[in-house]
Specification:
Blueprint (H helix, E strand, L loop, with lengths): L6 E4 L2 E10 L10 E6 L5 E11 L19 E2 L3 H16 L5 E11 L8 H11 L4 E7 L4 E7 L2 E6 L2 E5 L1 E5 L7 H19 L8 E11 L2 E11 L6 H8 L7 E2 L1 H11 L10 E6 L4 E6 L3 E5 L7 E10 L5 H19 L12
Antiparallel strand pairs: 1-2, 1-7, 2-4, 3-4, 3-15, 5-6, 6-14, 6-18, 7-8, 8-17, 9-10, 9-16, 10-13, 11-13, 12-13, 15-16, 17-18
Helix pairs in contact: 1-6, 2-6
Length: 352
């Protein structure tokens, strides 16, 4: 019988002793430590935990996680459909409907041992095989939330009235392989995020301390920018989330047009992928929410039995080459799917 206690883990922070669960973002302005997951489609789950402590991420124990074999995954969009979607977005750009849109696919595979599948054990594997600055677990089985993330991307950080976002746009195997198109994408999304934060920040306080910085991550590099502002009087979590969600880096610009195109071209809900995952400490006025990329989640309500799901996507601009964009999604997925296979060596390597 699958019966694991509620838990949230974000780097060295571990939260247990669940007290409340709500979908009301106003709760994040009240009191206590909250784990937060927001699906791309808008479902919000806020869980308040009473026991919050710091402890090392547990070692990956061989056999603790049994994942799908690398060949067991299927994609919501195959290569031909994805390439066709890229062509369609380029047509929309030519027609002036959008400047950029993020096209994503959801990969799914049956869990070999659904009753024993613990996403926190998967998080331990990810921490070893694909370390990431916003890695974590949110395990709330009774509320349909079982997420393990190795996200490299900051969605929203708060310290008092200061709010900050770190959009990623531009991915390649090395800095030398980054294209002019990657830099253009990043600048477009920075403008979008500035606009989003400007809706809830005091006039004149939104700045860009870093633009198109190169960050190295396992197996690839990203272009990352920083957008920062001071919240206007009266702006709390309901207003911040309404202004900024879903994250601009995984939608496109203008956001409203990109969302319409995404709905027309994608044939599977993104769920926690491309949503928000993280924590809010209402007592201290601090928070750190990641964009839900490099993220696995368990879907126990899937027809045919429980599935492990994972998303991969790319930002499409006029300069996009359909085959290169498909290959970018393959690059983003390959290492993570190998880790999630559970093929673990005592030497610390992942069988790839």
């Amino acid at each position: 019988m699958y019966d694991l206690a509620p838990l949230a883990r974000f780097g060295p922070l571990v939260a247990t002793d669940l007290r409340d669960v709500t979908s009301d973002p106003a709760a994040l302005d009240s009191a206590g430590f909250w784990a937060v997951t927001a699906d791309f489609e808008g479902r919000l789950v806020c869980a308040r935990f009473a026991d919050v402590r710091r402890e090392p991420v547990p070692e990956a124990v061989p056999g603790a996680w049994r994942g799908p074999a690398p060949g067991d995954w299927t994609s919501s969009l195959d290569r031909a459909a994805y390439r066709a979607g890229v062509h369609r977005i380029r047509e929309c750009i030519a027609a002036g409907e959008v400047y950029q849109a993020n096209l994503c696919r959801v990969l799914s595979a049956p869990l070999p041992d659904p009753a024993g599948a613990d996403v926190d054990a998967l998080t331990a594997l990810l921490a070893r095989g694909n370390p990431a600055p916003y890695a974590g677990t949110v395990r709330l089985p009774a509320h349909g939330v079982e997420v393990a993330t190795a996200s490299p991307e900051l969605f929203l950080r708060r310290s008092g009235r200061t709010v900050e976002s770190g959009p990623i746009k531009g991915t390649a195997r090395s800095a030398e392989e980054l294209l002019e198109k990657d830099h253009a994408e990043n600048v477009m999304i920075v403008d979008l995020v500035r606009n989003d934060l400007g809706r809830v920040c005091a006039t004149g306080t939104v700045t860009v301390p870093a633009l198109c910085a190169v960050e190295e991550h396992p197996g690839l590099v990203h272009l990352v920018s920083t957008v920062r502002g001071e919240l206007a009087e009266g702006a709390g979590w309901p207003e911040v989330l309404a202004a900024a969600f879903p994250p601009g880096s995984v939608t496109g610009a203008p956001k409203s047009s990109a969302l319409r195109i995404i709905e027309a071209l994608e044939n599977a809900p993104r769920g926690p992928y491309c949503g928000g995952i993280g924590w809010v400490d209402a007592d201290r006025g601090t928070a750190e929410l990641a964009v839900g990329i490099r993220t696995f989640w368990v879907d126990r309500e899937a027809p045919g039995g429980p599935l492990l799901r994972f998303g991969a996507g790319a930002g499409i601009t006029w300069g996009s080459d359909p085959e290169r964009e498909w290959e970018e999604t393959e690059l983003k997925a390959a290492r993570l799917l190998a880790v999630a296979s559970g093929a673990y060596r005592e030497t610390g390597g992942i069988v790839r």
